[in-house]
Structures are given as structure tokens and as C-alpha cells.
Amino acid sequence: MNLSKILHLVGYVFYLGASLVARPIPLPAVYWMGRVVGHLGFFLMPTRRRLAVSNMTLALGIPETEARELALQHFKNLGANVLSMLKVPTMSDAAIWRHVTFEIGPHVPKEPGGKGWVAVFGHSSNWELLGRLTKLFPQYRFGALYRKLSNAAVNRHFNKTRARMGVQLFDRQEEFWDAVAFLESGGVLGVLSDQYAGVSGTWMPFFGRLTSTSTLAAALAHRVDVPIVPIKISTIGWARWHVSIGEPIPRGRSVEITTASSNLELEKQIRQSLPDWLWSHNRWKTPPLGFLFTANRQQTHLPEGFHVSKLVPYRILIRSVTEIEEARLAAPSVLAIKRGRLDAHVTILAPEALVSFWQEIREVDNVISFTEGESPHHIAIRIRTAGNFDVGILLPENPDAAKEMLLAGVPIRLGSPHRKGLNHWQNPAGVPDPPIRGAERYRRIANAAGAKVP
């Protein structure tokens, strides 16, 4: 048995043990225990804490101190709701309903009329309660699209639990057409629509920042010609929740327009109950095949009436070379980087002698200057003073250039291979390239970022 299987087995045993411990304990006590666990997790999981704080400052535009307080509430809510999810499947419907209130919009289809509808919701509050909608709408058959968990044992247990509640599951990667048939036959299909969708998603604004978004719910609704109904669940007290089934989302002329409308509805739901949403998920993740979209042909869509100027900028810092001849050779690659995505904001870090050269290029948004001989520590201070950057691209081969960005806390640093301080390279395979100079080297670096330089 390899290490992965051993860890999965340990995880499954821990999951079953937690479920057994929670079974005899009253739900309010389980909820309290979960808040304690979440409080501890806030301090014991620094990576997730930093991610939640970063997401909140990015999406909500609030100061870091305020985001940290909100993140603590998020961790407490998350712990309480996760433990409650272990308890809920062991409870009777009557016992659960004492802790849940409902609100159903007047235009939600309450009687089956041939075809079903798509229910969209996010990872918010105690989302496992949504499996009990089979009791709220006994006239419908309920199903859900799901992604298999890496832990096969826990995945099987989840599937059996949902099957006992009357929910039919469809693998989103393998059973799309089965889900279509389910909708056509009058079923209600639940789709989680709030997470990062990877390279297969469409890039559209979420809280104003471009992120990969799944169009699956809208694609199903358009394919079968059924409504999309948003469902929100929020924590309203100690072991108390409110489930709101909203009005159908207007379907646009295309799948992308409908998905954008669904995104706006999800944003509104999150703002109404901020600590409940899964802020510790990396929703605005950087794509693994390059953070620019041109080379990989990533699709981008803006909602109707949404101007590109409203996008939160994706801030790119490019470390300039030090000689004017090399800067001229690098300029076409810099232009390609700027054109690589709609929200790109390009700042050049350049020696004083080249500031005027870069300022004359219209596509360059800002220039940070430094003096020749200035230490990496001082240049890093200049970078931090200029603001937070999402990525840094190094044009020179000077090892101190990578150190500057590392000290400044730039999270993604791309340049030529085998440079200390970088975490992305122009040659990801790590095979040493023959020495390359001039425009070709800059072109390769830009292409590695996802740009397309002829």
C-alpha cells in the first residue's frame, strides 16, 4: 500500500470517527465544537488564513485588518458548519426542520410541468442541508452534478449518504448526457457553480476580477430549455440556518451571458452573509499553463454593460534590462504581455536611464525607477511601496533581479531557467536551453507567460 492510499485510509477513518462522535451529541453542541475547531484552525492553518484574507481584500476592497477579523468569523462558521454536516445525516427530518427556515420565491416551479429545472448554489454555510430539498419538494426527483473526491472511500460514503436522501448523482466529467436526460424527464438538478473552473472555464468577472468560471449550469439550462433557480443557504444563529429559493435567473442569448447573470446573483448572495462563503478556496487562482490567455486561447466574457475599466487590474511587474539596445529588443514582448489579457496592468521596473524610453510606450501603465548599484533590498522596498503585484517577469539574467522580487513578496516570478528566487521558468521541463540572446530570449519568456509573440 503506497503513502497516498494510507493517507486516504487515515482520512476515511477520521471522517467515520468524527461522524460517530457527533451522532449522540445534540446539534447545538456539535455546532459549538465546530466553532472552537474553526477558531483553532485560523491560527494553525496560516496558508489558508492568508488566502482567505487575500481573497477578501481583493473581492471586497476592505483593509487587511478588517479582512482578518472577517476571516476569523469565516473560519468559525466553516468549522461549525462542517461538523454540523457530519451530524445532519444522522438526524430525522423533523429534528432538522426545527433548525431550518425556508423562503420560496413566488415564481419557483412548485409542480412538475414536463421538464425540471437547474438549481445553482455555492459552498456557503451548511450546504449539505440542500440534500433535504427532496422532502420540501416531494413531487420532484432530485439529482446533483458532482466531482469525485480524491479519497475514494470518503467519496463512496458521501454518495451512499446522498442516495439515502433520494438524490441521484451524476459525475460532471462523465455523465453530462445522463444529466440532460434527467432534466428532460422532469428532475431538478443541483449544480455547485462558485469554484475555480480551471483551463476549461470561461474567464469572466467575479467581484470585479477575472477568474475561470464554469458555464456548465447555463449550458444544461440552454440545452434542455429549463429555468435556472438560485438557492442560498445562510447561517442565522446558533445551529440555525435559512434556505432561500430565489426567482429564476433570466436566460440570456448565450450560455456566457446566462453564466454572467448567475455570477452576479452569487455575488449578491455572498455579500448578504459574508462569513458563510468559502473564502479559503483559491477562487482567483492563477492558471497553471500561463497567467496570460493569448497562447492558450482562454475565452473571456464580460457581462452586458460591463466596461473593461471596471475590472480589478491584474498587476504585472516587468524587470527591465539595463541597456537601451536590449530594451528595444524586449519591447515587442512587453507589448504582447500587455495584450495577453483584458485586465493586464503593466509596470516596468527600470534603471533611471531607461525610464523615459518605457514611459514613451503607450501600453506601459507605470514605471518604477531605481539607480544603478542600488541593493536588492532597497529595490524591493520600492516595489512594495508601489503596491501589490500578482506576477513578476524578469527580462535580465541578473540573479539580483529575482532576489528583488522575492524580497518584495511578488508571488509568481518568471524568467530564464535555473535562477534562484524564481518559481516559473521559460522552460518548465527544466531541460537546459542552449544560450539564447536578444529578442528571441525575451520572446520565449513572454510566451511562457501565456503571451503570443510572433
What would a concise description of this structure say?
The chain has 454 residues and is of the alpha/beta class. The chain is built from 15 helices and 15 strands. It has a seven-stranded mixed β-sheet. It has a six-stranded parallel β-sheet with strand order 12-11-10-13-14-15, sandwiched between helices. A two-stranded antiparallel sheet has the order 6-7.
Task: Report on the architecture of this protein.
With 454 residues, this protein is α/β, with parallel strands linked by helices. It has two domains: 3-276, no CATH class; 308-448, Rossmann fold. Helix content is 41%, strand content 18%. It has 15 helices and 15 strands. The protein has helices at 3-22, 27-44, 46-60, 64-87, 93-97, 133-136, 152-164, 176-184, 216-224, 255-272, 324-338, 355-359, 376-386, 399-408, 439-448; strands at residues 100-104, 117-121, 142-146, 167-171, 188-192, 202-206, 209-213, 228-237, 240-245, 314-319, 344-351, 366-370, 391-394, 412-415, 424-425. The strands form three sheets. It has a seven-stranded mixed sheet. A hairpin with a 2-residue loop joins strand 8 (228-237) and strand 9 (240-245). Helix 3 crosses helix 4 (64-87), helix 11 runs parallel beside helix 15 (439-448) and helix 13 packs across helix 14. The longest helix has 24 residues, at 64-87. The two termini are 50 Å apart. 38% of the residues are buried.
